[in-house]
Design brief:
Blueprint (H helix, E strand, L loop, with lengths): L3 E3 L4 H12 L4 E3 L6 E5 L3 H11 L8 E3 L6 H4 L5 H10 L4 E6 L15 E5 L4 H10 L3 E2 L14 H8 L5 E3 L11 E4 L6 E4 L5 H8 L3 E2 L25 E4 L3 H13 L4 E5 L9 E4 L6 H14 L7 E5 L7 H12 L5
Parallel strand pairs: 1-8, 2-8, 4-6, 5-9, 10-11, 12-15, 13-14, 13-15
Antiparallel strand pairs: 2-3, 3-7, 4-7, 5-6, 9-10
The structure holds threonylcarbamoyladenylate and magnesium ion.
Length: about 325
């Protein structure tokens, strides 16, 4: 199959993408977080094709995207009060709400057999327009091969899925660069299963206390099944390192002496202290770091790098999400 590139400059183009989806084909499209790989969420065969194209384990449920907030009632058995507050405050936007699923409406493989479903109304104009024209719910994981960094450009999607999907809607680079926050609202105390663009601080300001599921501090908390798999990893091993020029210089010297080709992912203020360097943007601007991270991790695969050093950020605001992805990409390894 040849993957069609669809641009978004006119209505006819949107209609092409809508027709593919309606016919049960897979279409990648931009959202404000990362590119998604979409299929109609009531079509079990189309959803099965998502898992095949990505090489995704079938026990990892998909997020269902909708173009109108009221549509949650069609797919969710019950909408907790706290979910209503979150929807009013953050939809459309990078927040996925895990709620009790209505039985027998969505394809069973969307939820991987769970009694809950993750719902999200994206904010990207292209995603919204597609969903509103299609008038059906769209299951969409990130449009990468399972285990690889999520795609933030159409070229990234092509790298992983060319020939495996019907079409890709090219809407340019995505805005946030990290996946949505996943919030489980099925318990009295809402739990962040995956940190993202909507931060714990922002949620607390709207709904009060929220818990954060981490690998170590909340062993009994419900998790996003996806978080147990290796993620976001380029081919060369990744090590986290403090954004300290002296430390980085020493590490690069040591590793180079051992015959390694070092790639450094660091903010502008640190600069090119290794033979291969990817700029993560202004050190004080965490959002810029988030935008550049996946692109830089992927770009390492097109270099001779045998080892990757990536600088850490403070665990605050979107820094929590950045550190979560760095932990996964590095397997927790620090230099
Ligand atoms: O920003 C995003 O969320 C992107 C764009 C395309 O919308 N999508 C995305 O999907 O990141 P994916 O499949 O790569 O990640 C979905 C995460 C996984 O960790 C999955 O386990 C979790 O959400 N998840 C989905 N449904 C869930 C449920 N019912 N309960 C718990 N976790 C769930
Ligand atoms: Mg993903």
């Amino acid at each position: 199959m040849e993957t069609q590139k669809i641009t978004v400059d006119n209505e006819e183009q949107y209609q092409k993408a809508v027709n593919y989806l309606a016919a049960g084909e897979l279409v990648a499209f931009p959202t404000e977080t990362v590119y998604g790989l979409g299929a109609v969420a009531t079509n079990e065969q189309a959803v099965a094709n998502i898992f095949n194209a990505k090489g995704r384990p079938s026990d990892n449920p998909l997020i269902v995207h909708i173009g109108n907030a009221e549509d949650v009632e069609k797919y969710c058995e019950h909408i907790p009060a706290v979910a209503k507050k979150c929807m009013a405050a953050f939809w459309p936007g990078p927040l996925t709400l895990v709620m009790p699923v209505k039985p027998d409406v969505l394809a069973k493989n969307v939820t991987a057999g769970l009694s809950t479903v993750g719902m999200r109304m994206p904010e990207h104009p292209v995603a919204l327009r597609l969903l509103q024209l299609l008038k059906q719910p769209v299951a969409a994981p990130s449009a990468n091969k399972s285990g690889k960094p999520s795609p933030t450009t159409a070229a990234h999607v092509m790298e992983d899925l060319q020939g495996k999907i019907a079409a890709i809607v090219d809407g340019g680079a995505t805005g946030i660069g990290l996946e949505s926050t996943v919030l489980d609202v099925t318990h009295n105390l809402p739990v962040i299963l995956r940190p993202g663009g909507v931060t714990a601080e922002m949620l607390r300001a709207e709904i009060g206390e929220v818990a954060v599921a981490t690998d170590t501090t909340a062993p009994d908390a419900p998790r996003a099944p996806g978080m147990k798999y290796t993620h976001y990893a380029p081919d060369a091993p990744v090590y986290m390192i403090e954004p300290n020029s002296e430390k980085i210089r020493q590490a690069v010297e040591q590793l180079t002496a051992q015959g390694e080709q070092v790639a450094l992912l660091a903010p502008t203020q640190i600069g090119a202290l290794a033979p291969i360097y990817f700029d993560l943007g202004d050190q004080a601007d965490l959002a810029s770091n988030a935008i550049h991270l996946y692109h830089a991790l992927r770009a390492c695969n097109h270099t001779e790098a045998t080892i990757i050093l990536a600088t850490t950020v403070p665990q605050q605001d979107v820094g929590v999400a950045i550190m979560n992805r760095l932990q996964k990409a590095s397997g927790g390894k620090t230099y």
